[in-house]
Amino acid sequence: MDNTVRFFQTTPRLVTGPGALNNVPEEIKRLGGGKVLIVTDAGLVASGLVARLEGLLDKARVAHARFDQVPADPPYEVAASAALVAKETKARVLIGIGGGSPIDIAKVASILAVNPEPVSAFFGIDLVPKAGLKTILIPTTAGTGSEVTPIAILSDHHEKLKKGIVSPYLFPACAILDPELTLGLPPAVTAATGMDALIHAVEAYTSKNATPLTDMLACEAMGLIFANLRTAYANGADLAAREAMMRGSMLAGMAFANAGVTAVHAFAYPIGAEFHIPHGVANSIMLTPVMEFNLLGCLPKFSRMAQVFGEQTANLSPRAAAGLAVEALRSLAQDLAVPMSLAPFGVRAEHVPELAQGVMKVTRLLANNPRVLTQADAEAIYRRVL
Fold it and tell me: Rounded to an integer, what is the distance from CA 312 to the centroid of its chain?
């Protein structure tokens, strides 16, 4: 019996379903109104989705400004720039729309607009002194789940690492999940972001901090994503598959926001920061070698995972059944044509020791891992995907 006291937290208000974007003006009104700052990126502006959002605000006579200078894997300085615009425009509500990068920048900018400390003071757990501006988060990918987590990940290019801010003040006031916004995602982006969402669920399920509640969410997320990701990748116009992916990503976010992720993300952070590998791709490359290392630490859960993925485990030993889960993940990655090697990104054998040192610095995540990891283990895992 586990006598540990557990806590569960998530975004307090979710607006979901096709066409949910149209509810934005009403949600702003519910938060007290005022000027809005839209935080996004140039790609989303070019797609026309930002203009659609701005049209809704114009129709509702909501004053708004825009910060659209969010790059992929944004350095923490970008959050400071967005916060400065928020203060200059006297924004009352921040809307983060896009993938994980604009959403995380919106979350961090909201606290920087209120708290005088530099962003570097907040890296870690529960270091933000007080709540920031209200935020509404609108994901346009089924990937990060950031709209339901108290976590923001930013790049520190000085230390060549990605760093996290963990604070309940990063939860938005509202998240709007409209699967129609994901219909235009290219197959490669669908694959990378979908794998990222699946990995969130896998790692939450196998985390040492998992609970019955997070296990329930993670299993539902794994089932939804595994059953629908191939369809969303091959036929991006399938709204049912897109909706299932968005729901799975959200549930995975709820799970890992409370149980934590593990070593896959710890391996992805150094290569993402140093070699600018997109987060979902970095996670996908590292997934199966890390899972093969981890499965001895929680064979029953890996066996259950294989069943969730539709594998036949009857009459198999726990070890054999656990192995089927890893093979199912490898087969999925192959079908989605996601990269399986670091070599195309310029990672070579001489980079491995320093990258492994970076992994060992991510103690927040390694503490959740179901198997103890050493520097030598980290180097061996990286070498497997060169």
Answer: 30
Task: Specify which residues 154 forms β-bridges with.
Answer: 163
- The residue from 116, 148, 182 where one domain ends is 182
Name 44's Cβ contacts closer than 8 Å, sequence gap at least 6: 50, 68, 97, 98, 102, 140
Q: Are residues 238 and 175 in the same domain?
A: no
CATH of the domain at 79: 3.40.50.1970
Say how far apart CA 336 and CA 250 lie, in whole Å.
21
Residue 306 CA to residue 248 CA, distance in Å, equals 17
Distances (CA, A) of 122 to 119, 199, 366: 6, 26, 20
Cα atoms found within 13 Å of the Cα of residue 337, Cβ hemisphere only: 7
For residue 235, what are the domain limits?
A: 187-384
Query: What is the pLDDT averaged over residues 106-117?
Result: 96
**What are the tokens at 113?**
């607009």
Residues 72 and 205 in one domain: no
Assess whether 138 and 52 both reside in one domain: yes
Q: What is the pTM of this model?
A: 0.94
Q: How far apart are CA 48 and CA 159, in angstroms?
A: 36
pLDDT for residue 249 is more than 90: yes
- Residues whose CB is less than 8 angstroms from the CB of residue 284 and which lie 6 or more positions away in sequence, other chains included: 191, 192, 195, 196, 199, 333, 338, 339, 340
Q: Which token pair is 232? A: 């969303």
Task: Say how far apart CA 95 and CA 12 lie, in whole Å.
Answer: 16
Picking from 117-126, 152-161, 211-220, which range would have the lowest pLDDT averaged per residue?
152-161
Report the run of H or E that residue 40 belongs to, with start and end: none
122 pLDDT band, cuts 50/70/90, is very high
- CATH number of the CATH domain containing 339: 1.20.1090.10
Q: What is the pLDDT of residue 161?
A: 74
At 93, give phi and psi (nearest 5°): -135, 135
The mean per-residue pLDDT over the stretch 369-384 comes to 96
- Verify that 207 and 355 share a domain, yes or no: yes
